[in-house]
TrEMBL record:
Belongs to the ketopantoate reductase family. This is 2-dehydropantoate 2-reductase. Residues 181-281 form the Ketopantoate reductase C-terminal domain. It comes from Actinomycetospora termitidis. Keywords: NADP, Oxidoreductase, Pantothenate biosynthesis.
Amino acid sequence: MSGERILVAGAGAIGSFFGAQLAAAGRDVTFLVRPARRAAFACGLSIASASVPVELAQPRTITATDLGSEPPFGLILLACKAFDLDATASDIEPAVEAGALVLPLLNGVRQLDVLDERFGADAVLGGSCFLSVHRTDEATVRHDGQKARLTFGARGPVRRPVEAVEALLTCPGFAVHRAPDVVAEMWAKWVFIAAAAGATGLVGGTVGELVDADGAWIGARLLAEAAAIAAGHGYPQDETALSSSRRTITEPGSTLVPSLLADVRSGNRTEAEHILGDLVARRGDPTPGLLDAVLVRLRVYDATRPSS
Ligand SMILES: NC(=O)C1=CN([C@@H]2O[C@H](COP(=O)(O)OP(=O)(O)OC[C@H]3O[C@@H](n4cnc5c(N)ncnc54)[C@H](OP(=O)(O)O)[C@@H]3O)[C@@H](O)[C@H]2O)C=CC1
Ligand SMILES: CC(C)(CO)C(=O)C(=O)O
């Protein structure tokens, strides 16, 4: 599979970062974009990073109407926001029908149900990623902090060997981890992001700003609620991992801006339903908690933001 073509569907912060790192390492990468992004990428794509900067002079782009006439792809990195999942899944259908495996990188887990139903579970890997990236202009993405990590794995029989996917993804720009239980990894990331995005999205400030305002307890309490829901679904959270998450979301001076907070700050639509709504919907106990309060706050934000 190492020579196979990669389609990156959704060239925002995440898609641009992973696609650019793979292209810089010599992989055959094509970005599936909408017309405005295609025009923006005509002059290149930059990843601004202290550790893994990339300049792609001519990123290869296509739009959905071209996909049917493309040679086959081996792997699709799916990196849209949750509210664009249905439309993006429709767009990639010709490539999946031609044999590609789909690796979704969204936060949360509901994407697996959506993609399994549409394409069949043997076409869909599990995946998640840890990195902080934000688009700073139409063709620049800023990468902050530590080395990016992409975790992926099969959840059952899949149409292509996962070892080959690992070889295709392995490159200097980020760490790759093939997880024996990728769904457990996705739940662990979900618990963390529900707390980090929920606490910062609620107050509209970074983790450090939240802590300065004596709000560290908010992140810690959201983390505990999210972990209890995960445990109720058969994904008990490892105490060491939970402590590390708690430290990250209560760290004084932290400049961490989760993507949901970045969306709130930019007036963009958030993934509140996917990250918080889907989590509380899976809780057995109907008694609302702090997660529900944050969800309500973000629903009001989404419903009343100027461009909604
Ligand atoms: N940013 C981060 O640091 C992290 C984000 N995540 C998760 O990754 C996912 C993606 O987030 P992020 O990259 O920040 O989001 P962005 O909003 O930066 O990017 C989403 C991209 O999807 C594109 N898109 C939407 N619909 C389509 C379509 N039909 N065809 C082609 N492209 C489409 C958008 O297109 P257009 O360019 O036209 O607007 C946009 O470029 C989210 O689930 C997020 O929670 C996970 C870890 C870290
Ligand atoms: C918190 C972070 C950066 C960790 O990867 C993330 O997942 C997000 O911003 O959505």
